User: Fold this.
Amino acid sequence: MLPIDTPAQQIAAHAVLGFAIVGVLSWQFLEVGRRQGLRWAPPMAAGFGLLALNFGLSVLFPPVEPGLLQLLRLGLLISAAYVCISLGIVRYVGVSALWSRRYMAAVIVLAVGINVAVAAGLAGRAAGVAVQSGTNLSWAVLFGIALAREPRSGHAFNLAAQCLLPVVGGLSMANALPVGMDRSFGVATYAIMGMTLLTTGLVRAQRSARAELLAREQAQAALGELNASLERRVAESTQSLRATIEGLESFNRSVSHDLRGPLGGIAGMADVAIRTLGKGDLPGVERQLRMIASQARTSFQLIDALLALARAADAEIVRREVDTTALVAEVVESLRSSLGVDRLPVGVSALPRVKADPALLRQVFHNLIGNAVKFTAHRPDPRIDVGVEWRGDEVVFVVSDNGVGFDAAQAPSIFKPFVRLHGAGYQGFGVGLSIVQRIVSRHDGQVWAEGRPGAGASLRFSLGPDAVVAVPAPASATPS
Assistant:
């Protein structure tokens, strides 16, 4: 092992150590910049590379008096290294573009200008130390900003080291430190800076990659959800289209049978009435006219049913707070009046207040209760109940009766337009429950039916989530 006794040998040893450490860090910055695409890494690699070259020249050509070699080392290599490292730190910290330009302009003017002046012998060593100290303090400020943004990242060591370097430089000028102490501290400072920036830079890159991966996973999940939603919409649209086609087919059948029949009857009876009138049989004409009026009313009722079905699909929904207890009472009274009876066997429980379209909700209850009245008319003890059930926070309205009921296998067809499960034995055109389904669907709710032949039926519907405004106190059902 070679002895290191003289100041020249100590300087050479420090230069070799600095060349090795700073050179390796330069190579690492270069690799990190190339592999990770970090904008701040290439300037750091260039700056540390220039410092390593300066250390190498110090081994081969020890420091001399101002001259060409000193101009090359101090005026060009060290000044360029300061500029490159400053640019790297500025990019790492993320200083605004305006302040970045101002800072780099100041570094270039002061570092290059004064170092060249010192190397050329136009300024003393103190000026060079002042430039280095000012640069170190500016780096300390930048590392302070980085520390505030990235606590516990190691920038506190950079901040402390950069603040101590001017002190070490001043003590070195005053010959208050052992020979080479300032160079050793400088090498240690660059080693701390390089390792800290490499470590935090890789942590940043890892965090950014993790965030990008998470964003991609979320985007993929959102895309999958969107695809699933589109598939659901396509399925719903297909189902709606099928229902529309089935409705059109039923409509064609209804028009050809229910509407064409009465219109043909009207035309035929009109001809008979004309011939009867020609015979002078006025009572016969009167009978024919009554039959014509009856057939015309049937036709008008079918047309009204068709219009109601169309309105249920196209009417604008205007949600307001509705007292369903009062609304059902009005519907029952309206049905009682239209049927010309003293009372109806309808029991109404206390119902919640909901947000819905009042006119359309009235149509729903009118059709459901009207159906129940129609299918219990032949029972000796007819009974209809209107109440509610709860599915969590969602209310389900129930209209049940003890009428003719229906076979469970017929349940899928009960809401199809112009389908009459019980044939011509009961009045109607088979659109009432279709209207109910369309109105409930437009309120984001559901409707379904349960029944047994001869044991009555129960029709339930909901109005979607958040429909309930207020829940009434429990009360017994009251007949209307």
Notes: The chain has eleven helices and nine strands.
